[in-house]
Amino acid sequence: MPQIRSEILYNQAQQDDYYKIALTCSQAFGAAVPGQFATLKIGERMDPLLRRPFSIHRLLHENGVVTGMEILYRVVGNFTGQLAEMKPSETIDLLGPLGHGFSLPAENATPVLAAGGIGVAPLVFLAESLNAAGIRMNHTAVFLGGRSDADILCIDDFSRLGMTVRVATEDGSAGEKGLVTAPLEAYLAEHRPGIIYACGPHGMLEAVYALAARHGIPCEVSIETVMACGLGICMGCAVKTADHPEGYRHICKDGPVFEASRVFF
Ligand SMILES: Cc1cc2nc3c(=O)[nH]c(=O)nc-3n(C[C@H](O)[C@H](O)[C@H](O)COP(=O)(O)OP(=O)(O)OC[C@H]3O[C@@H](n4cnc5c(N)ncnc54)[C@H](O)[C@@H]3O)c2cc1C
Ligand code: FES
């Protein structure tokens, strides 16, 4: 996978601690699938030493050719703090696309998407890819959860595609008060989607999978973890799964997207 010196096209503050950055990228991203990610490093800086992984939020096209990619990120520490300070036309080291992404369903399937907080980042790319693949998006729903309204992002991106958007926040400042699995559970009592795609904190993924399993619906989850090499070399990102002789898989290489029934949560 190519490693390039990428130019920052824009780096815009969203709400609260969230930012959206657009970067030029290699042609390899033309074949990227939703759920795949890239790792970033700022110049020759040694702090932080390790590259940081970020999902592809959206691909940017010009005349049908991929010319850039967007990353939606939350400032949580050293690297993301430095990233938020960077300006257009500055450069950053970009490696990708990496990992194994979501599988696209059959054309007549009715997927459901569920995101917890910044877990929404890869789901916009996924929704746009489902739309491009001919899925009837007005038959699909997305469930967005977060601690408060500051953590609810991308509503317009999903609405624009005709999707039903349901929101839940723990403090009740937007949508239904409580966890995102509550409106999802109510939805599953009345609808039978062909597949559920989810990205978010570990506990949320576990709860979404429990619902999917109870209703007999296939489910794919994108697992985010702290990564070191991001390339399957250091063994720093192991997840216990049912389908591997050694019992473990690398989230960076075999994931981050896994069929949920294969993961031991
Ligand atoms: C495959 C993958 C895709 C990702 N996609 C995105 C994305 O699209 N947008 C985004 O904002 N973030 C994403 N992340 C998380 C992102 O990599 C981390 O937020 C980032 O590395 C933090 O770096 P930092 O130096 O700013 O924070 P650090 O100083 O390294 O950490 C600050 C705090 O955040 C915690 N933390 C760091 N990484 C993670 C993590 N992966 N999960 C939970 N807690 C963590 C640390 O334990 C610490 O408490 C993704 C992670 C993975 C593995
Ligand atoms: S982060 Fe090194 S093996 Fe996955």
Question: How would you portray this structure in words?
Answer:
The protein has helices at residues 78-84, 121-132, 155-160, 181-190, 202-215; strands at residues 3-13, 18-24, 37-41, 52-55, 58-62, 65-74, 91-98, 111-116, 141-146, 164-169, 176-177, 195-199, 219-222, 238-240, 248-250, 257-259. It folds into two domains: 3-95, Translation factors (Elongation Factor Tu (Ef-tu), domain 3, Beta Barrel), CATH 2.40.30.10; 111-224, Rossmann fold (3-Layer(aba) Sandwich). It has five helices and 16 strands. The mean pLDDT is 93. With 265 residues, the protein is an alpha/beta fold. It binds flavin-adenine dinucleotide (FAD) and FE2/S2 (inorganic) cluster. Residues 227-230, 232-237, 250, 252 line the site of FE2/S2 (inorganic) cluster (FES). FE2/S2 (inorganic) cluster binds at residues 227-230, 232-237, 250, 252.
